[in-house]
Design brief:
Layout (H helix, E strand, L loop, with lengths): L1 H16 L6 H11 L7 H9 L7 H13 L3 E4 L7 E4 L11 E5 L5 E4 L2 H4 L17 E4 L2 H6 L4
Parallel strand pairs: 3-5
Antiparallel strand pairs: 1-2, 3-4
Helix pairs in contact: 1-2, 2-3, 3-4
Length: 152
């Protein structure tokens, strides 16, 4: 419980430092996101937070996620160019540090991938881009979907 409280305090300070007000909705959305290992969609976050704040609208969740994305507090994880999924991007919250993702092409499950070799990737020909981050998304079949495949 203490770690979660520290995460919330760090988040609140990060928001203030970046000129974003700290509202109870924003705190609740962050807490739900930071405590999830599932890379939830905005709809999933809405459902989770609505238990605590019944009047919370889905539009408010989207607006908060976009505001938090703009200051670098969350990143979107977009598996296979479908519904956006999110995770906390602040150090010490969520996965704790930058990482990559494994995405199941069948069920769309997303898992964190910590691989020091991938962390060293650099873009050689940035074509004028100011590259700020390199993220790898490895796509394939998760163990559950592999188990459901018919055997030949």
């Amino acid at each position: 419980m203490k770690k979660q409280r520290n995460d919330v305090e760090t988040f609140a300070q990060y928001c203030r430092t970046h000129g974003l007000s700290v509202t109870h909705q924003r705190l609740a959305i962050f807490e739900a996101l930071a405590s999830s290992r599932e890379h939830p969609s905005a709809e999933q976050l809405h459902k989770a937070v609505q238990r605590r704040i019944p009047t919370l609208s889905l539009a408010t969740v989207y607006k908060n996620l976009e505001a938090l994305k703009a200051i670098g507090a969350v990143v979107d994880v977009n598996p296979l160019h479908e519904q956006a999924r999110y995770e906390s991007a602040l150090p010490g919250s969520g996965a704790g540090h930058p990482h990559h993702h494994l995405v199941c092409t069948s069920c769309k499950k997303v898992r964190d991938l910590h691989d020091s070799e991938l962390d060293r990737l650099r873009v050689r020909d940035a074509q004028g881009f100011d590259v700020r981050a390199v993220r790898v998304q490895a796509e394939g079949l998760c163990p559950d979907c592999q188990g459901r495949r018919p055997r030949a």
